[in-house]
Request: fold
Amino acid sequence: MSSIPHYRYPAFASYDGQFYAQRALDPLVRDPAVDRAMDLAPYRARRILFCWTAYLAGLGRPAWILEAYALQNVVCWLLLAVLLTRWCDVSTSRGLAAWTAIMFSKGLLWSVRFALLDGPSLLLIALAVLAVEKGRPLLSAAIGGIAALGRETNVLVLLAQPIPRCRRDWARIGAAGMLVIGPTFVWLDYLRSIYRSTLLLGTDQMLLPGTAFAHVITRTLHGVASDGLWSGSGLDMSVLVSVVAQAAAIAWRHEWRCPWWRVALGYVLLALVMDRVLWDPHTGALMRVLLPLTVGFNVQLLRERRAIRFWPWFLAGNLHLVGILRVMPLG
Reply:
């Protein structure tokens, strides 16, 4: 890799996208030198999908692989821009507002800027939801199984499956479940032969519901009180307000028949038990992990006919757009 033109970040400035790009150079996890060049190598290896896609797009050539890895987030962002018009009618003011709030959300821009897994994952989740709406639930599950190789939380796309109403539907749900989790189990079995007892190293911790949020909101409120609303703490508060508003709107509206609502509800439940690292709004992880919630919130909000309800909820749930100031600094 030393012969490939690249910028080497110092240890304190390294980031996830850098490590996944390195992982893409060894997609079958056979080179110990690649593992030694990154932190939490087993954790990176579990999320292998977008390393594979970069390797294939780069035709196995190291310099091309790095370029492909960096650009695949941009490609996915552009594809999402088109795909989201299915649910957000950009010819209307509300549809355009919802589309903009998703496409320029802090989480999605952070993924594009740092070449992370969340933007490409969201594209696959959207495709899986689209497959359900087209009456292709098993295709949706197959897409979900592929997506789960990119990020384990992507298995929540299983919630997009149609609600079972008879014995045959339950059998279909069982088959869909196998399609979603099967590829991950096969890959983990392969990795177990390499990493043994360290395979689960770096796994995100789950806490008692609400404990991480209570810690983060308390700390952020103290920061706002001491530094002011127009400080970094104020930007963090805008993210927390957005997540709370989105979760509240999904919990309030019981749109069981809507695949996006069911997927969003799954991410609301995930948010309740996420650890403090993921809840920290300063790192950008919170809005990245909960991107499907952002989409589900905006898609569902478009069903609200009364403007007096739509715009207040929209502004509260998308206050995270203020975070663009941190993701895309000016000057």
In short: The chain has a mean pLDDT of 89. Residues 11-327 form one domain. The first helix runs from residue 16 to 24. DSSP finds 18 helices and no strands in the chain.
